[in-house]
Amino acid sequence: MIELRQVGLKYGEREILKNVSLTIKDNTIKAILGPSGVGKSTILKLMLGLIKPNNGQIIVDGTDITNMKETSLYAIRRKMGMVFQGNALFDSMTISQNLGFFLRENMKLPEEEISRRVTEQIQFAGLDGYEEQLPESLSGGMRRRVAIGRAMIFKPHMILFDEPTAGLDPVSSKKILSLISSLRNNNNLGAVIVTHIIDDVFNVADSVAVLYKGEIIFDDVTEKLHDATHPFIRSILSDKILEL
Amino acid sequence: MKNQRSPAAAMAFTRALQEKLLLKMKVFFFTMQEFFWFSIRAFVAIPKAKQYWRDVLDQAKICGADSLPIVLVSAVSIGALLAIEVGNLLEDFGAKTMLGRSTALSVIRELGPLLMGLMLSARFGSRNGAELGAMQISEQIDALRAFGTDPVAKLVTPRLVAALIMFLPLTAFSDFAGLQSAAYMAEHYHRLDPGIFWNAVYPRLVAKDFVVGFLKAPVFAIIITLVSSFNGFSARGGTSGVGRSTIKGIVVSSGLVLIANFYVSKIVLENM
To answer: What pTM, to 2 d.p., does this model score?
Structure first.
């Protein structure tokens, strides 16, 4: 479980997050919805300890990681997998090297076990036959699936997705969303999805938090979003895709 | 009315200038602080270089073997030019036989290492800045951290170790090529017997001359690697941000190489 308690963050004079509180339970999919540039991706980075908040607390599985040192955070981070918006695959490595890289780096596993896990993720992502390709030779949807496979390589409890369908065609988007659903249904994984596409929320999320001007203005089960009265939520329900 | 308003405007202008200067100073000191800790992290991670020996080898090839041609070209051209100009000057004093001595000192103590440093600042430093900057903006460095790998140990320390190892032989090659081209010009331009040239070089070189020259290699390796890598890690704002950080890395490291060149020479020559 991940908890954000009264988290605030400023960049210089600009206040990005104002007393944000969120709870993400295991085995559930939580969406964080909001317009571009509102600080949604920042929330994911805070959950991983990649950036520190100015105030508030971040609790991961009961451990306060707010002021934890970088080296102590590595073990915590392995409980979560992260799928970056641009995938962040290593472009000089093949797909199988990308998938196996962090296992070789951080776990003292025998090479057979690493190969087994890499093969497992390649099959899960439906990328058989592409093992030796470089990321640049794959389509956007395929690269996203490699990034999801890489996020699952440590067998985490939770996967954090930064705009999982942004920039993808409708068919690839559908595949990615069904992959995310299958993580919860078949692998008992929880997920946090940061998105500005409201259809994604209704397709996969169990609950949704709406971030607007640095504040959470709605946090409840997805179905209740239709009942929300906040003018911003009313406007996004009619527009479907959020733009500033 | 105009006279009444101008002192207030001047005060506002001064205050705005002060605030701007204060902000710039703050940014400078914060950057220096960050650079200090970044450098410490790179050095502390040196024992981990064993784990990344493949990266060390890759970087050694890039800053060593791949940089050799440009280092040799610059050393040959400066050696030849030095021989022509110094030879002309010495001829006026009837001291052309001292050409070997004066060229050797200039090349081994100063120009060999300095040119190598500047060339590597442009070649190795720009590559570091651009590569790490691109990794930064495409979130690959964040990905390393997110999956529990220290990006400084993985990306910076292998570059630092490789540079520390390779800059020494590169300095030797640079010195050798510079002296050979000077000897060639002495023989064919100034019609100086090679025996006279080399006799003025070898027996008169002392340990101090080599210490001055070769001590610069690790100093330049540290400056170029850390400054360019730090700028790559600090890249922000898309592809133009990568360009800016790369240029900044080259300019700052080249400037520091020139300053370090002076101080290493001064300190060693005064104390040996």
So the answer is: 0.86
